[in-house]
Design brief:
The chain is an alpha+beta fold. It is built from 3 helices and 5 strands. It has a 5-stranded antiparallel β-sheet. β3 and β4 form a beta hairpin. The two termini are about 15 Å apart.
């Protein structure tokens, strides 16, 4: 994969369930934080987009869980991007354990942009420009 961004993390105790592994829902937090950090790094600001009348929203997430993380594990959350048509933005996101580069999850996150007031799909020039740099 030609990843364009990666973010290091460490599993915290409270993210684990009774089995001692990271709860499945926590991975979505890792993925979202990675997307937000990436967009911030490339100059996008969600607050400013919203103030301009545009909201970026996730419309679908597919996650394949490959291997569990445990408390204290260090891992990298990596991503690359694609576009589908004019209004769909796709984040391909993978997580790897640092100690052995073991694949933990593979995810596909599909987002779009909507008018902040009406909720109707709308083209967001600033988001499109960012994605086009990496295609």
């Amino acid at each position: 994969m030609d990843y364009i961004f990666e973010l290091p993390f460490k599993v915290r105790d409270y993210e684990c369930d009774i089995q001692g592994i990271v709860n499945n829902s926590v991975y979505q937090n890792y993925l979202e934080h990675t997307r937000h950090e990436f967009l911030e790094e490339v100059g996008l600001n969600f607050t400013q987009m919203h103030d301009d009348g545009v909201d970026a929203v996730v419309i679908r997430i597919e996650i394949d869980y490959k291997f569990p993380l445990r408390s204290g594990d260090q891992f990298l959350s990596k991503l690359y991007v694609a576009r589908e048509g004019k209004l769909k933005y796709i984040f391909y996101q993978d997580i790897y354990r640092v100690s052995d580069n073991k694949p933990i999850i593979k995810a596909k996150v599909i987002a779009t942009t909507i008018n902040a007031q009406s909720g109707r799909p709308v083209f967001a020039e600033q988001l499109a420009e960012v994605f086009d740099r990496y295609l």
